[in-house]
């Protein structure tokens, strides 16, 4: 079991999640974030922080979402750590509305 | 005159203390941080609160050890502020003091019979099975047929899970050996979880419930489910409570018959956890020995007795007062503005700050303390120029004070040795670590300085 960032993060990148991560397990590029499953301790603090509900316990993922487990594991190994909150992407508000959050 | 090096003292080496330290070390490149901890070991509730079977969560301790290794941070374990050093001592050594002493006191229900043997508060019971020096003496007798747990939060569910979890699982956790012996003698077949509110008002998370429900030797029952109205099944206080409620309803609809018997009844007999709602405890009853809990429904006024030979009340925590610092408000939190401590009249107390449970009250999880600690650190940073101007050079020195009072010198290096010792002892027993249980243990393991 682990926690993953799903593609709701894409075009948003709100980064509220990183402020409560006790183990600094978020990694990211310019488009979105991922969780390093080897660092994450499954505390779940980040889940309610995300304005677009992008983070989930892998246990709660629907079948179609299961791909994010592998993607997070893979991408987090090659991207830098994101520790500090950053400005959301310019498309964030629009994307958030489109997602219905 | 060279620029003044800010000296900051933090009281409490739990999650909030470490995250405040991390934020300060990062934001103030020349500050020096002294981190005081009353226990012989650091990590606070990660060591003494997080359930011993949640080892993955306890891995966060490695992050704390990384912060403690910082060259501008000094850990002083085994030193209690208010006992070994006064707040005045600390203020004399520091430009600023940050209180991160948590909420170590279990709240009591204030009902008759709470002082009967075998009735424990959660701080005592959780502290006992986690080997906290303040609580190792409690020695609850687990060789009873049934137990009652008062409360509907995650602490109540942690206690419940440990009371029913198979002995093999517990033996592989970091429950210290003396406490594990009590679990070996466990006779519990039934646990009653008593919630004051409606089923939709539960405070525990679905994840915690699932961990309990997933135990192969445990079945969960709702003795009152037949009485619940459609409205009660439908009304949840939060999205999380709704998930719990939906699961409970499905469980009830499935009936009790579909739970498979445990594969090996000898090692893990089938245990029942009864979830009671609208069950406000009115009294613990028994003649010298605990016999049960008398509960009353706040809705119907009905009263009934739940039999138990052990009771644990998990109804919240309050902060211990620190002598020389302003007291807490009625809710048990210190008065503050973004971490700046305020006195009873709402005036700022210069140089005094607060973070963690002492600031927010006993809620949130480990990571919540990171954002909370960073907020307090930012407030401190903004106040620092004035604090430095007021008193450029503190009048006392921490090392000189510790030496003159003959206080223990348990820094990060000493903790690394104790940690290695605990892990080695644990490995020999097939568990993550065998905890030291007192300051004397720590000093004995370390040997003469």
Description:
- The complex is a heterodimer of chains A (101) and B (449).
- Chain A has 3 helices and 4 strands.
- Chain A has a single domain, classed as Alpha-Beta Plaits (2-Layer Sandwich), CATH 3.30.70.20.
- The model of chain A has no long low-confidence stretch (mean pLDDT 95).
- The termini of chain A are far apart.
- A two-stranded antiparallel ribbon of chain A has the order 1-4. In chain A, strands 2-3 form a two-stranded antiparallel sheet.
- Chain B folds into 2 domains: 227 residues, NAD(P)-binding Rossmann-like Domain (Rossmann fold, 3-Layer(aba) Sandwich), CATH 3.40.50.720; 208 residues, FAD/NAD(P)-binding domain.
- Chain B has 17 helices and 18 strands.
- In chain B, the strands form 4 sheets. In chain B, strands 3-2-1-4-18-17-16 form a 7-stranded mixed β-sheet, sandwiched between helices.
- In chain B, a hairpin with a 5-residue loop joins strand 17 and strand 18.
- In chain B, helix 1 crosses helix 14 and helix 7 packs parallel to helix 10.
- Chain B is globular and about 70 Å long.
- Chain B starts with 6 loop residues before the first strand and ends with a helix.
- The mean pLDDT of chain B is 93.
- At the A-B interface, loops of A face helix 3 and helix 14 of B.
* Largest Cβ-defined interface: A-B, 14 and 20 residues
CATH class of chain A: Alpha Beta
Widest β-sheet, arrangement of strands of chain B: 3-2-1-4-18-17-16
- What proportion of the residues of chain A is helical, as a percent range? 10-25%
| Chain-averaged pLDDT of chain A | 95
Poorly predicted runs of chain A are none
End-to-end distance of chain B, in Å? 38 Å
- Helix tally of chain A equals 3
**Gyration radius over CA of chain B:** 24 Å
Shape of chain A: globular
Beta-strand share of residues of chain B: 15-25%
CATH class of the largest domain in chain B: Alpha Beta
Measured between the Cα atoms of the first and last residue of chain A, the distance is 26 Å
Q: Architecture of chain A in CATH?
A: 2-Layer Sandwich
* Oligomer class: heterodimer
């Amino acid at each position: 079991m682990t926690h993953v960032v799903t593609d709701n993060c894409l075009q948003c990148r709100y980064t509220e999640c990183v402020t409560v991560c006790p183990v600094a397990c978020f990694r990211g590029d310019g488009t979105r974030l991922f969780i390093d499953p080897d660092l994450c301790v499954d505390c779940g603090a980040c889940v309610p922080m995300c304005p677009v509900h992008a983070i989930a316990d892998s246990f709660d993922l629907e079948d179609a979402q299961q791909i994010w487990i592998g993607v997070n594991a893979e991408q987090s190994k090659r991207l830098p750590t994101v520790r500090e909150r950053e400005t959301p992407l310019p498309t964030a508000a629009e994307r958030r509305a489109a997602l219905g959050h | 005159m060279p620029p003044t090096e800010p000296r900051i003292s933090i009281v409490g080496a739990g999650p909030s203390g470490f995250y405040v330290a991390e934020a300060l070390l990062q934001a103030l490149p020349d500050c020096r941080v002294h981190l005081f901890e009353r226990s012989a070991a650091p990590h606070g509730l990660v060591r003494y609160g997080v359930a011993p079977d949640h080892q993955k969560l306890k891995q966060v301790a490695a992050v704390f050890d990384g912060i403690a290794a910082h060259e501008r941070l000094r850990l002083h374990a085994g030193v209690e502020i208010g006992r070994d050093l006064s707040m005045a001592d600390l203020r004399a050594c520091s430009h600023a003091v940050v209180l991160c002493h948590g909420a170590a006191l279990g709240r009591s229900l204030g009902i008759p019979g709470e002082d009967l043997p075998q009735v424990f508060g959660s701080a005592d019971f959780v502290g006992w099975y986690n080997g906290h020096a303040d609580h190792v003496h409690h020695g609850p007798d687990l060789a009873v047929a049934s137990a009652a747990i008062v409360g509907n939060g995650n602490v109540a569910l942690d206690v419940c899970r440990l009371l029913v979890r198979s002995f093999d699982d517990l033996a592989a956790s970091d429950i210290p050996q003396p406490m594990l012996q009590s679990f070996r003698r466990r006779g519990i077949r039934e646990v009653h979880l008593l919630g004051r509110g409606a089923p939709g008002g539960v405070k525990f998370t679905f994840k915690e419930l699932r961990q309990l429900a997933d135990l192969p030797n445990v079945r969960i029952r709702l003795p009152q489910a037949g009485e619940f109205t459609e409205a009660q099944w439908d009304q949840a206080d939060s999205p999380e409570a709704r998930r719990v409620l939906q699961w409970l309803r499905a469980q009830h609809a499935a009936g009790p018959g579909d739970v498979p018997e445990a594969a090996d009844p000898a090692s893990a007999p089938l245990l029942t956890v009864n979830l009671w709602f609208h069950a406000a405890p009115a009294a613990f009853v028994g003649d010298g020995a605990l016999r049960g809990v008398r509960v009353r429904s706040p809705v119907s006024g009905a009263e009934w007795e739940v039999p138990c030979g052990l009771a644990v009340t998990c109804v919240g925590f309050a902060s211990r007062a620190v002598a020389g610092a302003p007291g807490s408000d009625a809710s048990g939190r210190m008065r503050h503005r973004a971490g700046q401590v305020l006195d009873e009249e709402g005036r700022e107390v210069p140089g005094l700050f607060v973070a963690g449970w002492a600031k927010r009250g006993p809620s949130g999880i480990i990571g919540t303390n990171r954002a909370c600690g960073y907020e307090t650190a930012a407030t401190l940073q903004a106040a620092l120029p004035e604090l430095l101007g007021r008193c450029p050079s503190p009048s006392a020195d921490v090392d000189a004070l510790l030496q003159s009072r003959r206080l223990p010198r348990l820094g990060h290096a000493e903790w690394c040795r104790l940690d290695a010792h605990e892990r080695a002892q644990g490995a020999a027993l097939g568990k993550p670590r065998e905890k030291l249980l007192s300051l004397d243990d720590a000093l004995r393991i370390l040997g003469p300085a």
